[in-house]
Amino acid sequence: MKAMSEPNHSASQDTGATRVEVDQNLCQSAGYCVRTAPQIFAFDADDIVALRQGDQLTSGPVDVPEDQFKLADRAAWDCPAAAITLTPPA
Ligand code: SF4
Questions:
Q1: Which of 12, 23, 60, 72 is 20 to 30 A distant from 49 in Cα terms?
Q2: Which residues, in sequence order, are bridge partners of residue 58?
Q3: Alpha-helical segments (H) within the chain
Q4: What is the chain's pLDDT, residue by residue, as a tens digit (90 residues)?
Q5: What is the CA(80)–ligand 1 centre distance, in A?
Q6: Dist. CA 9 → ligand 1 center (Å)
Q7: Which domains does the chain have, with CATH numbers?
């Protein structure tokens, strides 16, 4: 098991929106992100976290609305597996 660590913040790809992705191979299904930001994260059929994109679930990346950025950032910080990556806008 990987200890708590800082979330992955990588360089922007200049999309104009914060992008979020999840490494489903790292996810431990702890559910912190789902509890923190259920409008962004959800468990898939295998109980691994995925990202909401309309009616679909994906590992991302997906764009996060500006008003949900703090929730996504909090979820990334809280993730015990450092499985959530945020790419901020330029
Ligand atoms: S907080 Fe991290 S380990 Fe827990 S469910 Fe979300 S992505 Fe998976």
A1: 12
A2: 51
A3: 32-36, 69-78
A4: 444 455 555 444 455 789 999 999 999 999 999 999 999 999 999 999 999 999 999 999 999 999 999 999 999 999 999 999 999 887
A5: 7
A6: 16
A7: 20-81 (3.30.70.20)
Separation of alpha carbons 52 and 64, rounded Å: 10
pTM value surpassing 0.90: no
Give the residue, out of 20, 28, 41, with the most ligand 1 atoms within 8 A of its beta carbon, to mutate for a pocket test. Answer: 28
Question: Would you call the peptide bond into 61 cis, given omega within 30 degrees of 0 as the criterion?
Answer: yes
3-state helix/strand/coil string of the chain: CCCCCCCEECCCCCCCCEEEEECCCCCCCCCHHHHHCCCCEEECCCCCEEEEECCEEECCCEEECHHHHHHHHHHHHHCCCCCEEEECCC
The answer to whether the beta carbons of residues 6 and 48 sit under 8 Å apart is no
